Amino acid sequence: MTSSARSLPALLTSGIVAVALAGCASPAPADDAEGLSVVASTNVYGDIAQSLAGDLATVTSIIESAAIDPHSYEASAQDQLAIANADIVIENGGGYDPFVDVLVDGSGSSAIVISAVEASGLLEEDHAEEAHGDEDHAEEEHAGEDHSDDHAGDDHADDHADDHGHIEGLNEHVWYDVHSIAHVAEAITEALVETDADNAASYESNLAAFLTDLESLEADMEALAGFLGGGTVAATEPVPVYLLAELGFEDGTPEEFSEAIEEGADVPPLALQQTLDLIDSGDVRLLAYNEQTESPETQRVRDAAEAAGIAVVSFVETLPEGEDYVSWMRANVEAVESALTAA
């Protein structure tokens, strides 16, 4: 999740890119490739971009396989060359895939860079809620005081971003928020039109079709939320929490547990015990399990959930083979429904 588990190999230096590419399994997009060149950090955004661009662009996804753990991904010289040749680059942002920014800077790329976190609107919502809370706190405890020296105008993202760009309090897995991904699609379409205005009508038509599919999925999710009746869920990581929230559920996972798993760190014994206690409490309806960051601690939580008869649904961070974005999200929703309604 965060960049602490990622590193960039020395072969990214420009002086040996050409030599390193000789050993790559597949070539990066050529400079003279027909149509636009779009590079996405993962195949989730690559698939969305392809849906919007159609055959007017060549889309390259840096991380394509669900067998690859995005937490420990090491970018290659091939990745840097792809970025260097790109017209549009799509990253998740929020500290999830900081290797993209390093590649953009290292290649001298002039591509339009789209951050899904920024385009989603979730960052603004998070900070608006925080600002509202700060105002309430100020009114209650500091009414009438002179705060002329306070830095009321400080940017929240700067204040709460760590050294790796991870934003405190933000769940950066925005692709699991079906509603917000519509804004990401709109940002990608805007970049396509800006880069290739002659085909604007095609891009906008593709966007309309994509949004229609999203709206249908959202309507089904809203109906299912009413049927399932909500409740508490637990998750080994906050990857699918947006999706579960749209289905009416509340994440009860101890924050220290999910943060440790997300950062690839040792889980504090107290946090593990609190999570196991939550599982044993009888309040949890479902455990969301991230297969791409499995560890002894997550396996222990899963074993406890299965022993307690709690439904376990597996989620991954990259697009499974044979799925597109909408069909994948629908499959996740159906998996939740099936797990909770099984006899």
Can you put this structure into words, describing what you see?
The protein has 343 residues and is of the alpha/beta class. It folds into 2 domains: 3-120 and 165-212, Nitrogenase molybdenum iron protein domain (Rossmann fold), CATH 3.40.50.1980; 229-341, 3-Layer(aba) Sandwich (Rossmann fold). Helices cover 48% and strands 12% of the residues. It contains 14 helices and 8 strands. It has a 4-stranded parallel β-sheet, sandwiched between helices. The radius of gyration is 21 Å and the shape is globular. Residues 1-32 and 127-164 have low confidence and may be disordered.
Topology of helices and strands:
Blueprint: H1 17-21, E1 36-42, H2 43-53, E2 57-63, H3 77-84, E3 88-91, H4 99-107, E4 112-115, H5 116-120, H6 122-141, H7 156-160, H8 178-195, H9 200-228, E5 231-235, H10 241-246, E6 249-251, H11 255-263, H12 269-280, E7 284-290, H13 296-307, E8 311-315, H14 325-341
Helix pairs in contact: 2-8, 3-4, 8-9, 9-14, 12-13
